[in-house]
């Protein structure tokens, strides 16, 4: 491409030097969004909206949508054809492997993945501008949890599965956000690139992939090589459905790691909105959720949960990045950093205690579903995704 990288990116020469073609493609792709989904939301629909048309096509197929524009047909022409490399058995095995550690997964997605993502102020600007970055961290977390629940269900990512449908809806939500930002006059494209560009979509896959896996390992979770391959296979397909280009869509652990490194290398660091988001996420969601399961008085549980969450955040993202985000420093972090090897010894015992892997897995799905029901009630969330939010 002829365009120079967005002005607010840093270390662009180093990215090219260190990563070669991958670094150059990363920088070029800051100008690439999702042409298929963006065209769908830019179209005019008679008697309805792009959101309604997409949901109708998901439910009944594109042929059931009256007067479907060419943009919608083009989108579903790609969605309705599965790639040759896809293996649904591997997707189901990945869901089982992750759900067996549902408690650890829930912790790391909030305290590691989202916090790691907040280290880049450009990536966070779409949420900051839309106002959902700080004001509704708990509701946003429940929405993400509901999407993840559908994805991490056997058969969820098949064409008729709820995980597939939710992921397509997320793709269209991203396109709506882009259109709103382009029309708002508040988006500085020369400084930030396009809203929700391909590189930051790729990083989102890494948030659910390697970043989560690495943080879970610090909590003592150990996946087999086969389980890891299946998990990366799952996120590769989710990436495809959510609108990732084949060139940037991560297919393996090495791809995830490279994406994480480029994200951090070229990031200008967090800004005030990012620090406010981490504070709100921690105080309004992570700490109350952890306090719910701790013993003691309400005051004691709150204080201990605050220390534990701050300590875990530091273990997961490191002191340097934690300092930049204003995360409290606490000696407890040094203790938590050493618990992984001890907790890993408990993992085989869990399987035995619950009567084998199949029973453990079935129990984990039941617990996950019950927890989602509890959180939806606790935070008064009556919708599934933001495109169905009555507010």
Could you provide a short overview of the structure?
With 391 residues, the protein is mostly helical.
What does this protein structure show overall?
This protein is an all-alpha fold and 391 residues long. The protein has 20 helices and no strands. The mean pLDDT is 93.
Tag the structure with descriptive keywords.
391 residues, mainly alpha, 20 helices, 67% helix, globular
Topology of this structure?
Layout lengths: L11 H17 L6 H8 L7 H11 L9 H10 L8 H12 L2 H16 L3 H10 L6 H15 L10 H23 L4 H4 L5 H21 L6 H17 L11 H14 L5 H20 L6 H20 L1 H6 L7 H5 L3 H5 L2 H7 L3 H22 L13
Question: In terms of structural class, how would the helical and strand content be classed?
Answer: mainly alpha
Major β-sheet annotation? none
Q: What would you call the quaternary organization?
A: single chain
> How much is the average pLDDT?
93
Gross geometry: globular
Instruction: Report the helical percentage.
Output: 55-70%
**Low-pLDDT stretches:** none
Residue share in β-strands: under 5%
Number of strands: 0
Radius of gyration using CA atoms only: 21 Å
Count of spatially separate domains: 2
Task: Give the SSE order as H and E letters.
Answer: HHHHHHHHHHHHHHHHHHHH
Distance between the termini: 41 Å
Number of helices: 20
């Amino acid at each position: 491409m002829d365009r120079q990288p967005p002005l607010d990116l840093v270390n662009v020469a180093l990215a090219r030097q260190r990563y070669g073609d991958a670094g150059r493609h990363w920088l070029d792709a800051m100008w690439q969004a999702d042409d298929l989904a963006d065209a769908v939301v830019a179209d005019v629909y008679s008697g309805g909206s792009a959101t309604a048309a997409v949901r109708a096509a998901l439910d009944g197929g594109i042929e059931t949508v009256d007067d479907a524009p060419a943009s919608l047909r083009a989108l579903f022409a790609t969605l309705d054809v599965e790639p040759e490399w896809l293996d649904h058995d591997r997707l189901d095995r990945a869901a089982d492997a992750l759900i067996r550690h549902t408690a650890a997964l829930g912790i790391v997605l909030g305290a590691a993945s989202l916090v790691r993502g907040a280290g880049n102020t450009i990536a966070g600007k779409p949420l900051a501008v839309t106002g959902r970055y700080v004001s509704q961290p708990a509701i946003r977390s429940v929405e993400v949890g509901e999407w993840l629940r559908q994805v991490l269900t056997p058969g969820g990512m098949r064409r008729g599965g709820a995980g597939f449908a939710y992921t397509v809806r997320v793709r269209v939500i991203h396109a709506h956000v882009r259109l709103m930002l382009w029309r708002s006059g508040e988006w500085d494209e020369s400084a930030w690139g396009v809203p929700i560009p391909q590189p930051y979509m790729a990083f989102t896959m890494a948030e659910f992939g390697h970043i989560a896996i690495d943080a879970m390992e610090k909590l003592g979770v150990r996946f087999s090589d086969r389980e890891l391959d299946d998990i990366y296979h799952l996120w590769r397909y989710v990436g495809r459905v959510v609108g990732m280009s084949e060139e940037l869509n991560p297919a393996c652990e090495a791809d995830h790691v490279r994406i994480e490194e480029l994200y951090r290398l070229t990031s200008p660091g967090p800004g005030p909105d990012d620090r406010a988001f981490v504070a709100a996420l921690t105080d309004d969601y992570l700490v109350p959720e952890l306090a719910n399961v701790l013993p003691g008085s309400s005051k004691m549980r709150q204080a201990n949960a605050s220390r534990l969450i701050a300590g875990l955040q530091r273990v997961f993202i490191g002191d340097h990045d934690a300092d930049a985000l204003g995360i409290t420093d606490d000696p407890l972090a040094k203790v938590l950093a050493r618990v992984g090897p001890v907790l890993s010894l408990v993992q085989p015992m869990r399987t035995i205690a619950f009567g084998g892997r199949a029973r453990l897995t079935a129990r984990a799905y039941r617990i996950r579903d019950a927890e989602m029901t509890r959180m939806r009630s606790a935070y008064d969330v009556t919708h599934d995704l933001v495109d169905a939010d009555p507010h």
